[in-house]
Structures are given as C-alpha cells and as structure tokens.
Amino acid sequence: MTPSEWRDKLFQIKDAFLKDIGGVSPENLDALEIRYLGRKGELSILLRELKDFPIEERKSLGQDGNSIKTEMESLLAGKKSSLSPIKTQAASGGKTGIDVTLPGYPFLKGSIHPISFTVNKLAEVFMRLGFTIADGPHIEDDYHNFEALNIPQCHPSRDAQDTFYLAMKDSQANNLLLRTHTSPVQIRTMMKHKPPLRIISPGRVFRRDALDASHSFVFHQIEGFYVDRNVGMADLKWTMEAFIKELFGSDTRLRFRPSYFPFVEPGAEVDMTCVFCRGRGNRSAAVPNEKCPVCKGSGWLEMLGAGVIHPNVLKACSMDPVQWSGFAFGAGIERFAMLLFEIRDMRIFYENDLRILKQL
Ligand code: DAH
Questions:
Q1: E strands within the chain?
Q2: What is the pLDDT of residues 7-51, one digit of tens each?
Q3: How crowded is residue 50: how many other Cβ atoms within 10 Å of its Cβ?
Q4: Which atom in ligand 1 lies closest to the alpha carbon of residue 327?
Q5: Rounded to 5 degrees, what are φ and ψ at 329?
Q6: pLDDT of 218-277, one tens digit each?
Q7: CA of 156 to the centre of ligand 1 (A)
Q8: Are residues 221 and 185 part of one domain?
Q9: Does 126 fall in a domain?
Q10: Is residue 101 domain-resident?
Q11: Do residues 276 and 348 share a domain?
Q12: Could you identify the atom of ligand 1 that is nearest to the CA of residue 224?
C-alpha cells in the first residue's frame, strides 16, 4: 500500500463510521465499537500497517490516523451517553425516561455531634425539672464575667494568662473578653427577670489553655440556677441527685465536698460514683490491685461546682438577699460527653473526623 492509498483508506473508514453511528441503535453500539475500534477493528488494523512505511511518512500519516481515532472515540462516547436514557425509557416501557423500578440513590443522613447530643440530653433532664434555657453572648465584659459574680480584682482567673481579652482601640471597650465560663448568664438573666427563676444555659466558653487530652482553649459548659424564696443547699442537693441519677442510673451516689467559688456561699464540688468501676476503685473485682483508669482508684469522679448564690451576686442584680435566695451550679459538658461515650481524649470532639461523627 502506498502512503496515499493508506490515507484514502483512513478517510473511507471514517466516512463509513460516521454513516453507521448516525443510525445506530442502543443494542448495536458495542458491536460498532468492536468493528471499528476493537483490537481487530478496521481502524486498528490500518494503524498497525503504519510500521511498514519509512519514518518520515509514518510521522504525518500517524498524526492523521490518531486524530481520526480520537474523533471517533469521542463520537462514540457521546453517543453512548445520549442513548442511555433511551435504554432506560425502553426498559420502563413508558415515555418518561424514568424507570420507577430502579433502586433510588441513597441519601446520606446527617448526624449529631456528640457535644450537641450531650447538651440536648442534659437540657432534656432539666426541662423536665421545670428549668428553661437562656443564652448569653460569647463576648462579655469584665462586669458580667467577673465583677458582678463577686470575683475579686486580684483573682487569678482575671489574668491575661488565663483570659482572652479583646484588643480594642476604643478605651471604653477595653474590658471586653471572651467569656471564661457560663456564669455571666446568671447575671444577665437576674438583671432582666424577676424570680422565681429556674434557668439552664449551655454554651461555649474560652480560656487560654494549651490543647491536650483534657484541656482546650474553647470548650462547653452548662450553668444552672434557681432563685426563689427560701431556696437553699437542700434544694441544690435534691436537684443534683435527680439530674445525675437520671443520666447515669439510679444507683449512682453523689458526694458534696466543701469548696470555694466567689459567687456562692457555701460552695461545693460535687462528685459522683465512678461510672467505670461503679465506685470500687479497681479495674475489676477479679483484679483488686489494679486501679480503675477513669477515677484513678478513688471510686469518685468530680462532676461540677455548685453552691448557694452569694448575697453580693444577688445585690449586683438588684435583688434583695433577705427576700430572695438561690442555688447555682456549673459543669463542663465535655466531661459528661467523655463519660457517656467512653472517650478518653477530648481533642476528638474538635477534629470532626467523619468516622466519629457518623456514629450518632
Ligand atoms: N463558673 C465555674 C467555673 O467555670 C463553675 C461554677 C462553680 C459555676 C460553682 C457555678 C457554681 O454556678 O456555683 O469553673
């Protein structure tokens, strides 16, 4: 074959292909592809014959051959995709192009973050006890975050080492900060509303802590308080017991340890029986000498801070401490979530690994 005969043959194949593809039916598409482009197809055989030409001819003929091959392949691909709905239409026997017998596409369901799940669970328990939810700003001022809560000027939590202060040009705004706890919601609510008040307030708080397995610069707390006539320590104990037993089971015991928080008097830290060893302090009854890894052998877990609201706090909110009294408590939400989901490292809550998030 001469080079010009080869080229004529190439265009003949192309013309024949164009004619065939114009009227091809969906069932014959594969056969058409094999006939022209398959390993023993007309075009493939012709391209293989190129090797018999001298190098300079081979080059230019090869270019023509390859460009026609590409053109044919793309025409074929276009035809395949344009014919496939017709295939479906034929299968359904209708005119709509929709085959109602085909399985549907799966919809990926959203899932709830373990922190949101925990907040909802805590809120649900308190709502059944007659509490309602209040919200407060993440950007607070010194007055609501510290001053009105009876936190003295020299208190270490006010230090710029612990608190994120907002750098502002306006000197009046200089005392703005990211709230370090949810307690300022007490102040905002009591300034605005009259008792009786039964409020919980879950939300984000910020501290200048380095990230590790049990610390983060942003985490979550829940604040709760009850103000009415004659509210005292006994009401606090009853409410905390009802709350913790509802979450961790009725055989969970509570322990109140005297503690100091400037905004309560008396103040307490509340412990509960370790959910892991159920208060035994060891890993299992069979190995009594091996310490429980969750409570480190004490049998108790520290869960929250609480107390009877300090008269100075009530006064800062224009409430008469003779007439009104109340209790307050605050707890870290991550702590509850870690125990509910048996998570050892709180960084997991902020990394948003889909394998974790999809589980709920
Ligand atoms: N605000 C405290 C903290 O961030 C927690 C707390 C302790 C809140 C005692 C209270 C309370 O309402 O009575 O550590």
A1: 132-133, 139-141, 176-178, 197-206, 218-228, 254-259, 264-273, 282-284, 287-291, 300-309, 325-332
A2: 999 999 999 999 999 888 888 899 999 999 999 999 999 999 999
A3: 15
A4: 13
A5: -150, 160
A6: 999 999 999 999 999 999 999 999 999 999 999 999 999 999 999 999 999 999 999 999
A7: 15
A8: yes
A9: yes
A10: no
A11: yes
A12: 12
Tell me, yes or no, whether 278 and 220 share the same domain: yes
Structurally, the chain folds into a number of domains equal to 2
- The domain in which residue 19 lies consists of 3-91
The pocket around ligand 1, CB under 6 angstroms, is made up of 181, 183, 223, 261, 264, 305-307, 328-330
Contact 185, 135 (CB under 8 A): yes
Closest CA to 49 of 17, 3, 109, 91: 3
Pick the residue whose CA is nearest to atom 4 on ligand 1: 181
Angle between helices 233-248 and 333-341 (to 10 degrees): 30
DSSP string over 239-303: HHHHHHHHHH-TT--EEEEEE--TTEEEEEEEEEE-TTTTT--EEETTEEEEEPTTTTTSSEEEE
Distance of CA 181 from the midpoint of ligand 1 (Å): 7
CATH number of 256's domain: 3.30.930.10
Residue 98 lies in a domain: no
Q: The pTM is what?
A: 0.71
Whether 108 maps to a domain, the answer reads: no
Return the best residue to mutate from 261, 302, 317 for the ligand 1 pocket (most ligand atoms within 8 A of CB): 261
Residue 328 tokens read as 């307050």
Answer yes or no: are the C-beta atoms of 247 and 125 closer than 8 Å: yes
